């Protein structure tokens, strides 16, 4: 489960705006939208990104439902975010709560300073 989520969260969708809405739930919409214009210090931007992450997980990970993502700026790194992904894992008719600690850091080595997401 963790590896599947990490793969989803480390993939970037190249579509944005109205185009991304048209392809949501298809292979063309798989991955997170570009968030390079969002600032980790802005609570509004963190909320927007958290909502986008929760929507993508709900759309592309059918084993999880009731997905919630909370993001906070970690102390000491102004370009990173730390947070938690909380959801219910659906196994047949049984729902088990799960949570994953998440860190999102800008990777200066990648073109455009793309974000790298790690899950624990």
Index terms:
120 residues; Nuclear Transport Factor 2, Chain: A
Write the layout of secondary structure elements.
Elements: H1 2-9, H2 18-23, H3 43-60, E1 64-72, E2 80-91, E3 94-106, E4 115-119
Antiparallel strand pairs: 1-2, 2-3, 3-4
The averaged pLDDT comes out at 82
What is the general shape?
globular
The order of strands across the largest sheet is 1-2-3-4
- Classification by helices and strands: alpha+beta
Euclidean distance between termini CA atoms: 11 Å
Q: What order do the SSEs take from the amino end to the carboxyl end, as H and E? A: HHHEEEE
The major β-sheet equals: 4 strands, antiparallel
Number of domains: 1
Poorly predicted sequence stretches spanning 5 or more consecutive residues: none
| CATH class category name | Alpha Beta
The value of Rg in angstroms is 14 Å
Concise structural overview:
This protein is of the alpha+beta class. The protein contains three helices and four strands.
Structure description:
There is one protein chain. The chain has helices at residues 2-9, 18-23, 43-60; strands spanning 64-72, 80-91, 94-106, 115-119. It is α+β, with helices and mostly antiparallel strands. The chain has a single domain (2-119), classed as Nuclear Transport Factor 2, Chain: A (Roll). It has a four-stranded antiparallel sheet with strand order 1-2-3-4. A hairpin with an 8-residue loop joins strand 3 (94-106) and strand 4. It starts with a helix and ends with a strand.
């Amino acid at each position: 489960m963790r590896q599947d989520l990490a793969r989803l969260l480390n993939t970037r969708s190249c579509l944005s705006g109205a185009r991304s809405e048209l392809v949501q739930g298809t292979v063309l919409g798989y991955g997170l939208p570009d968030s390079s214009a969002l600032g980790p210090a802005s609570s509004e931007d963190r909320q927007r990104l958290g909502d986008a992450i929760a929507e993508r997980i709900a759309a592309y990970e059918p084993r999880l439902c009731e997905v919630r993502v909370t993001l906070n700026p970690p102390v000491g790194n102004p370009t990173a975010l730390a947070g938690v992904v909380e959801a219910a894992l659906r196994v047949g008719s049984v729902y088990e709560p799960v949570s994953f600690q998440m860190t999102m850091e800008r990777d200066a080595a990648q073109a455009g300073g793309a974000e790298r997401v790690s899950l624990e």
